[in-house]
Amino acid sequence: MKTIKGLIAAGLAETEAARRITRDENMRRVYSDFPELKDIDGKIIDIRKNRLIAAIDHDERLAKRYDIEEESLIAQRELIISDNCIDPEFDMEKPICTKCGDTGFVKGKDGTPKVCSCKQSELEECYESCGLGDYTSFTMKNYRDDYLGESEKRAGIKKKMLRVMLGMEDEGGKALWIYSGAPQTGKTYLAVCIAKLAISLGKSAYYTKCENLATLENDTIEDIKRIDFLIIDDFADDVTLHGDIGSVLNNVLEIRTAAGLCTILVSALPLTDLIGGCDMRVSGKLGRAGKIS
Ligand SMILES: [Zn+2]
What is the pLDDT of residues 191-227, one digit of tens each? Predict the structure, then answer.
């Protein structure tokens, strides 16, 4: 799986190259329009080299002469630039994205860093690689608190899910959480949106249905043991009894809980049914999990 930080870092070399090309193009254009400026800049470079040699030779008199010559050239340069309304930074590399300065992250209103809008394609690629590829249309903006007329309860659950994802809920340092709610109440929609939000805040996150734990590649299983945030949807007691699922799940939860990494299990069944019917190793962990409902 890919993380958003990894994807942004991988694009850095390309962004740097783009910055250099833009600067080179600016310089070529300005020098072609104002050859006298190119001439002065060439002279300044030569003087600085000579000034360096004079300094190494301890020839202070000569060094001083170069200083005076450079000052005069810089004054001429500034005059050409201001008289012709040339961008004084035409020969400097500038960020391609002024919002994030090409770091890929901007500070949100509350001060938390989030992925900049210029990295939308990296976000999409990350969603795709983190189990969220089938849910392109799911957005937090469209999650309706008043759906089914239980707006207060739904808003409360949404808030708690957000706080759990952000590590703000502290019930004795719980890392494992269970979000249990009736079928058809938008649990998957909310779970997907929370996972996407975690990624857009720079976290490594993954979303999977519980039954798919049996088909994930070994590399992905290793990754999800260590990522910041994991959501396992459609969690049900009987699923944990199929094939390897109980064993994989137990192993993943064991490592994540020990490392204090947040995992949310989403289920349509009440917690008591889950604890009673699950693979025994998993059910032992459920008793100690935090509750979202
Ligand atoms: Zn940006």
Answer: 999 999 999 999 999 999 999 999 999 999 999 999 9
Q: What is the mean pLDDT of the chain?
A: 94
96 Cα–ligand 1 center, Å: 8
Distance 106 CA to ligand 1 centre (A): 7
Query: What's the 92 CA to ligand 1 centre distance in angstroms?
Result: 19
Domain ranges of the chain: 4-83, 137-292
Q: How many A from CA of 21 to the centre of ligand 1?
A: 18
Cα of 278 from ligand 1 centre, angstroms: 46
The class of domain 137-292 in CATH terms is alpha beta
Torsion of CA 44, 48, 49, 51, to 10 degrees: 130
Q: State in Å: Cα 5 to ligand 1 middle.
A: 13
- Cβ-proximal residues to 18 (8 Å cutoff; 6+ apart), any chain: 96
Q: Which two tokens mark 293?
A: 């409902």
**Strand, helix or coil at 49?**
helix
